[in-house]
Specification:
By secondary structure, this protein is mainly alpha-helical. It has helices spanning 2-20, 37-61, 67-75, 78-88, 97-100, 111-122, 126-142, 149-168, 177-206, 212-240.
Amino acid sequence: QEAQKLANMQAMRDFMDAVIQRLPDSDQESENDNADEYKWEQRLQESDRLSSAYTEAMEKYIDDEASEQKEAFVMGWDNLLGEMADLEEGVRQKAPDWIDEAVEVEFEFDDEHESDYDEAFANAHPLQNKSRTLTIRIMEWTGFIKDNPAARDLEALMIQISGRLAGAFEVDADEPENSRHGYLLAITKRCINWCQEAVTACQQLEVGLNSKAQHDQLKDFLREIFALRDGLTDLRRSHHQK
């Protein structure tokens, strides 16, 4: 019975490895390389597959007492398994860094921090601010119609766009210019696709709206999503011309 359990876990690990399709070591450039848009897209796709695989692993072992160990095993995270084993045996007197980073830190939001945030947004790229403001407005509006799947899709898509753009425009300045350029192109391409999906979600959402005020608000959101998409398209065109 124990042998069968081990065989099942190994089969699950092999399946996850096929799902993730990790890039060969020869394609895993260092952080300071000159990755272009194509290479960044490969990395982002691998990250997407990794997230999907981890979600599946968590769902499978959610009720298991050894869920963390089994998730680490099927995901191929052998180093993490080693750290877990060391902790259980009492070898380490201090928890590893990955545990320290997971500890929730209490943060007091005061006027000083608020001014820092205001300054950060003031210096942010216009498209980043536009996506953030639009996302907040849509989240406030969809809060009244959470039971609608299209509303949840629209909200999730806008959160992805806003979050990804924030990262794309705030890449470490120490990164090589070509790498930053490639990352921005890869992210904006994805955001344009998500804008298209957001438009589809709006069109699906429109069918279930009753009042004229709701229809007018949705049309306003559509105009802003189209404007954001056009702005991203222009940004990509200008970077391609450099």
